[in-house]
Amino acid sequence: MKFAVIVFPGSNCDVDMFHAIQDELGEEVEYVWHDTESLAEYDGILLPGGFSYGDYLRSGAIARFSNVMKEVVKAAEAGKPILGVCNGFQILLEAGLLPGAMRRNESLSFICKPVELKVETNRTIFTAEYEQGQTITIPVAHGEGNYYCDEQTLAQLKENNQIVFTYQQNPNGSLEDIAGIINEKGNVLGMMPHPERAVDELLGGADGLKLFQSIVKTWREANVVNA
Amino acid sequence: MFKVKVYVTLRESVLDPQGKAVTQSLNSLNYQEVTDVRIGKYMELMIEKSDRDLDEVVNEICTKLLANPVIEDYRYEVEECVAQ
């Protein structure tokens, strides 16, 4: 499986993401610059964390109009797995690929620490390798992770099982402890915690690795004969 | 040439953590009469006259990029000015 790590000016978790895929997951991966015209050759798209365009105006607001995002929308429509982490999640929200928006953390502090998450559903291509309801530890690092959506959207998220991860102890004030959501079609996941920073016990934990393994496994089952 | 002054604030229904902190700070400075602070952004746009209706253009700009309608409201004022 071949992954693209999209790099915007100001991305700073791209190298961690690349390392997670190449060295820990053992899959093919390339950096793709934000003005790229085509993502046709990639099977999975990863939007890393950071501060794209300096978070000017709003987090993700400028990045969402970059060239490559037209291709990300196409890839989403084509059903390719797309994962946005932290700033990547914010970009997916701004692009309208996921519903809702981010506010400043309730405490106004930048929060950087490992947090416990509950896997709300393992019936997604991103969480198939986890147990339903399992608690995993993944680090967060953000100043704007306070997820918000209106009541109607929240009801839809619940009804369609689109809330994938929740915080066990809410660090940022996000609505209903939401840490990660998926689109209705089930191929676009946005999450504030950083699974790519939890892929090796040397880094303090490896709970994030199963997320990437889930993507590869479900992709192989769908795309490789005799997988 | 028009100078368009755009104000973007969090919607009333959305809690403004920065505004809340500033309210508390003002209250602790003994300005008890301050009951709420909403923090927003102020932007000035210089826009040339064109065939398109100015309001239409500004509203489009605001909803597309300057404000996020999920959590923010905007309003604007227009001043006509001489190009420099």
UniProtKB/TrEMBL annotation, chain A:
One of the record's GO molecular function terms: phosphoribosylformylglycinamidine synthase activity
Domain of life: Bacteria
Matches recorded under PROSITE patterns: GATASE_TYPE_1
Reaction it catalyzes: L-glutamine + H2O = L-glutamate + NH4(+); N(2)-formyl-N(1)-(5-phospho-beta-D-ribosyl)glycinamide + L-glutamine + ATP + H2O = 2-formamido-N(1)-(5-O-phospho-beta-D-ribosyl)acetamidine + L-glutamate + ADP + phosphate + H(+)
SMART domains, A to Z: GATase_5
EC number, as in UniProt: 6.3.5.3, 3.5.1.2
Entry's localization field: Cytoplasm
Pathway the protein acts in: Purine metabolism; IMP biosynthesis via de novo pathway; 5-amino-1-(5-phospho-D-ribosyl)imidazole from N(2)-formyl-N(1)-(5-phospho-D-ribosyl)glycinamide: step 1/2
Keywords, alphabetical: ATP-binding, Cytoplasm, Glutamine amidotransferase, Hydrolase, Ligase, Nucleotide-binding, Purine biosynthesis
Tagged with keyword Ligase: yes
Record-annotated active site: C86 (nucleophile), H194, E196
Function: Part of the phosphoribosylformylglycinamidine synthase complex involved in the purines biosynthetic pathway. Catalyzes the ATP-dependent conversion of formylglycinamide ribonucleotide (FGAR) and glutamine to yield formylglycinamidine ribonucleotide (FGAM) and glutamate. The FGAM synthase complex is composed of three subunits. PurQ produces an ammonia molecule by converting glutamine to glutamate. PurL transfers the ammonia molecule to FGAR to form FGAM in an ATP-dependent manner.
NCBIfam families: FGAM_synth_I, PRK03619.1
PANTHER family: PHOSPHORIBOSYLFORMYLGLYCINAMIDINE SYNTHASE SUBUNIT PURQ
Assembly and interaction partners: Part of the FGAM synthase complex composed of 1 PurL, 1 PurQ and 2 PurS subunits.
Protein name per the record: Phosphoribosylformylglycinamidine synthase subunit PurQ
Gene (name only): purQ
Automatic annotation (TrEMBL), chain B:
Keywords: ATP-binding, Cytoplasm, Ligase, Nucleotide-binding, Purine biosynthesis
Top EC class, one word: ligase
Main location per the UniProt record: cytoplasm
Keyword Nucleotide-binding part of the UniProt annotation: yes
Catalytic activity: N(2)-formyl-N(1)-(5-phospho-beta-D-ribosyl)glycinamide + L-glutamine + ATP + H2O = 2-formamido-N(1)-(5-O-phospho-beta-D-ribosyl)acetamidine + L-glutamate + ADP + phosphate + H(+)
Enzyme Commission number(s) of this protein: 6.3.5.3
UniProt xrefs under InterPro entries: PurS (IPR003850), PurS-like_sf (IPR036604)
One example GO MF annotation: phosphoribosylformylglycinamidine synthase activity
Pathway: Purine metabolism; IMP biosynthesis via de novo pathway; 5-amino-1-(5-phospho-D-ribosyl)imidazole from N(2)-formyl-N(1)-(5-phospho-D-ribosyl)glycinamide: step 1/2
Compartments it resides in: Cytoplasm
Alphabetical list of PANTHER family matching this protein: PHOSPHORIBOSYLFORMYLGLYCINAMIDINE SYNTHASE SUBUNIT PURS (PTHR34696:SF1)
Subunit composition and interactions: Part of the FGAM synthase complex composed of 1 PurL, 1 PurQ and 2 PurS subunits.
Function, in words: Part of the phosphoribosylformylglycinamidine synthase complex involved in the purines biosynthetic pathway. Catalyzes the ATP-dependent conversion of formylglycinamide ribonucleotide (FGAR) and glutamine to yield formylglycinamidine ribonucleotide (FGAM) and glutamate. The FGAM synthase complex is composed of three subunits. PurQ produces an ammonia molecule by converting glutamine to glutamate. PurL transfers the ammonia molecule to FGAR to form FGAM in an ATP-dependent manner.
NCBIfam families: phosphoribosylformylglycinamidine synthase subunit PurS, PRK05974.1
Family listed: Belongs to the PurS family.
Protein name: Phosphoribosylformylglycinamidine synthase subunit PurS
Annotated gene: purS
